[in-house]
Specification:
The chain is an all-alpha fold. About 40% of the residues lie in helices and about 0% in strands. It has 4 helices and no strands. The protein binds a DNA duplex (15 and 15 nucleotides) through α2, α3 and α4.
Length: about 170
DNA sequence: ATGGTGATTGTTTAT
DNA sequence: ATAAACAATCACCAT
């Protein structure tokens, strides 16, 4: 019904969807070369520095699914030592899942992301007081970790461990 | 002994 | 918006 050409980026959608097909962009290794080149700094742009308190990225739905899949895989293949084997099998299975099946994983990932954002909020503040090698740091903003509050005792959601709810969305349309 | 690597896909982040 | 990197995992090989 509403399938008109609203956006003009339609032709570029494909490129946006899959700009690169290469699975291995060189090497997605989790290790960075111990050189002066930091992790993220292709050019000589000194702006990214490693952070001691930087919160790690929340696991995506795929990773959440992978975690469970690892157990299954190990149970089915006791003896596989290659992590890549689980990843490969997991990836294949993951694609096999439908949106509905991935939904629960995405839900969890979304929650993880929400928490991550919160951490980032605090982390950003810290960076803000420390990251300033622009030109003059003389005056400086002295707002520090003392007033980051802004809203802490608002929502205490401490019961998000084992909740099997969130299942009211039933769409048999698919 | 230590740690980097390999492989998956999704998100996250920086420019 | 795009491109690149990183998120976990685990045994193994190289230094």
């Amino acid at each position: 019904m509403k399938n008109a050409k609203g956006k003009g980026t339609l032709k570029n959608i494909k490129e946006t969807l899959k700009p690169v097909d290469d699975r291995k962009v060189g090497k997605r290794k989790a290790s960075y070369k111990p050189d002066k080149s930091s992790a993220r700094k292709p050019e000589k742009e000194k702006k990214a520095k490693k952070d001691p308190n930087k919160p790690k990225r929340p696991p995506s739905a795929f990773f959440v699914f992978l975690e469970e899949f690892r157990k299954t895989f190990k149970a089915d293949n006791p003896g596989v030592k290659a992590v890549s084997a689980v990843a490969k099998a997991g990836g294949e299975k993951w694609k096999s899942l439908t949106a509905a099946e991935k939904a629960p994983y995405e839900a969890k990932a979304a929650k993880r992301k929400a928490e991550y954002e919160k951490l980032m909020n605090a982390y950003n503040k810290k960076q803000q007081s420390s990251a300033d090698d622009e030109s003059d740091k003389s005056k400086s903003e002295v707002n520090d970790e003392d007033d980051e509050a802004s809203g802490e005792e608002d929502h205490h959601d401490d019961d998000d461990d084992d909740e099997d709810d969130e299942e009211d969305d039933d769409e048999d349309d698919e």
